[in-house]
Task: structure prediction
Amino acid sequence: MADPLSIRGVVERPVHFRAGPHTLFGVLTEPPNGGGDVGVVLAMGGAYVAAPNRNRLSVRMARALAAWGCRTIRFDYHGVGESTGTIDGYWLDRPFVEDLVGAVDVLRSAGVRRIILIGSCFGARTILAAADRVPELAGAMLISTPVRDFQMGDNVPDQYARDLSVPQLLGKALRSHVWRNLFAPGTPQAFLRSRRLITRTAVLKLARLLRGPRGDGRARGVSDRFRAGLVHLHARRTPLLFLYGQEENFYEEFERARRGELRDLLTGPEGTVTVEIVEGVVHGFTTLAVQEQVMARGLSWVQTLALSTAQTAPTRPQKSLLTPLS
Amino acid sequence: MVLPAVTRRTDARGRFREEAAFLPFRGSEMFAVTYLPVATPRVGHPLLLWEPVVRTERYFQELLRSRRVRELRDGRVPANDWREEMAGHGHVDILGHAFHRGLYETGQSRRLDALLAGTTHPTMIVQFRRGRIPRPEYQRLQEAMAREGGYLEIGFVHDEPAWFFPGHQMKVLARLLSLSADWLCRVAEGMGSRG
Result:
């Protein structure tokens, strides 16, 4: 562990830690007095987003949490930023569980006894998949969590291939702006986006047609892994906060699942699941206004959770998991 | 951004005052126009610039245009005039990034050609674009530097600048790194042979 750096009343240390075969980079942010027993892991979305997140959202959140007494770690997934390894792509049904557990281990070794996980999109799905390896989990904030499984970049093609018939897809492809983007694009990006949308939708639709009807979660539009993570957390009565933007398709699909297949898990009487909606699109944090709303709601929820009656969590022997920076 | 020195050499003719005789500077976009005015790289040390901004006004216009394009694409009601937003908040929202008034005001009227005029830094610009034709502004810069006895090389990678699009997987990263490292080594060798 490198020497700490004191910034506006909080202390930050760069850390390297093991996660499976990889050495990951992270930043541990702590209150000046070391803090209490609550620690927070910030898990980024996919798409090669590094630890600070867009517009340093994770940096700001970590420092605000530390000011309230929480230790926080933000980190680069393997293949991203300063961490080792490479990534061939992101699939929501192949989350980076080892990376998240490695970050949790850093908090454990720092003395944390209750852990709160905060993640967006791919990071939220990673949290759901890793929850059974975090017995100290006190709560999870899941931001823009997709309920489907798809590869990064296939969000819309996958949705079209699943929800639309072939005639409906042809109708979409024949719209004027699609042809304009293909044959007289305003920008190279418009051309590339349209070309990719059409080819990936065609490939995914063809695959679905050839495969025939299936009864698994992927075919129904609710991932089996998403459901499994939820079942586990439901059984543990772990407080969950789902946060979505009103205008994003992830919210639409989540609502559909909440009214249908996941009803029992998401609307239980225990009141452990909270769903909050903000205006616009949260996914990607593409506006400052959305970032502010996510910060405010996240901090408020964590504060409430941290101040609530301390849950008993199994303790583990402390050991040094941090690799000194060389 | 400063890369670690690729190699340390001693210039026998005392051209460099310190031991680190080879100290390249590498930066992207706004690096050159914000760095060069305040820190004077030692004479002759290489500058490796990835898709540098040549005129800050134009770059700022592009940033503000990208915000408007996003609003139109999303069908959102256009936000306040950006000047009002900057005056009120001290920054403008550009695709979720804060474009601060300080950067806008201090970055006014910076021109890369003016900053490089009369210097002897071996310079390489890496242009991110399809094709191997230099952008006119880079071409003009190259000609201007040549007239004044300087040297500018332009390299090409066929991709979009990844930092414009968070989430963009750069397919030509290996090419970018090899192009940059090879050039730095060539420059270092050239400096060594002169030494």
Remarks:
- Strands of chain B lie at 25-28, 47-50, 91-94, 97-100, 123-128, 152-157.
